[in-house]
Design goal:
single chain; about 250 residues; alpha/beta; seven-stranded mixed beta sheet; four-stranded antiparallel beta sheet; 9 helices; 11 strands; about 35% strand; globular
């Protein structure tokens, strides 16, 4: 089930305003231009900010997400009419051809067991041509980002047009390695509503990810530093290895 921030209509409706500046997406637009990609499958597209931006740039885009409320927000954005929106998850991708399959944000970390992430990678492998790429980002475990996920460090207030003032913060609720669980809290000033959204991410080291990619029939072409969070995240660029068949899971 999607987290409440994506699945609850009231929370998904404020997601973009709370996130604010999305300059973090610039790196992915740059990678797509570098790869000469035209057909894009955006897995875990959320409220469609990247998908609509790419569509406005003339790309052929399919956005897939399991959260209906997020897709409803996405469909109202400029350029949304040029995107094919699909309700679903990365383990059952639609029958399309893509030059690039993308998983931005923490999407690759929401797969809590290796089998589900392997299925997502295998799905990407099926829709990519031999020259296609899988592009995704993950947080580097050794940087222990969750140690800064507490109210004192994350609390802020956002003024949202048509909504009013919303206070929000993040707090870690559990660390049972390699799983980190946390709660987002939102307090709406207009009616004093308090809504929460619980999430869990799995942290994997680089060899673990490379082995899962190899099992799915990929070869890693590059692992880059995320420019918006230098030293904190890896961006993987992987490509189908035509001479290899996906390996049987261990």
């Amino acid at each position: 089930m999607p987290d409440a921030i994506f699945a609850d209509p009231r929370l998904s409706g404020i997601y973009d305003a709370v996130e604010g500046d999305r300059s973090d997406l610039d790196v992915y637009v740059g990678i797509l231009d570098e790869l000469g990609a035209q057909a894009i499958l955006d897995v875990g597209c959320g409220t469609g900010e990247l998908a609509c931006r790419l569509a406005r740039d003339g790309k052929d885009v399919v956005g897939i997400d399991p959260a209906v409320a997020s897709l409803d927000v996405a469909r109202r954005k400029p350029g949304a009419e040029r995107v094919r929106w699909v309700e679903g998850d990365a383990t059952a991708l639609p029958a399309v051809h893509a030059d690039v399959v993308m998983m931005t944000g923490n999407v690759a970390q929401v797969f809590l067991d290796d089998e589900s992430l392997a299925a997502a990678f295998a799905g990407a492998r099926r829709v990519l041509g031999s020259e296609g790429h899988l592009v995704f980002e993950v947080r580097i475990p050794a940087q222990r980002a969750w140690e800064q996920w507490h109210r004192d460090a994350t609390e802020r207030t956002v003024q949202i047009e048509g909504i009013g003032t919303v206070a929000t913060w993040i707090e870690v609720t559990s660390v049972v390695w390699p799983f980190v669980s946390f709660r987002r809290t939102y307090v709406f000033e207009d009616d004093h509503a308090v809504l929460t959204s619980d999430s869990t991410l799995r942290f994997r080291d680089r060899p673990e990810l490379e082995n899962l990619l190899l099992d799915a029939g990929f070869v890693v072409r590059d692992v880059r530093d995320a420019p918006d969070r230098p030293g904190l995240e890896w961006i993987f660029l992987a490509q189908p290895a035509p001479e290899m068949q996906p390996r049987s899971p261990r």
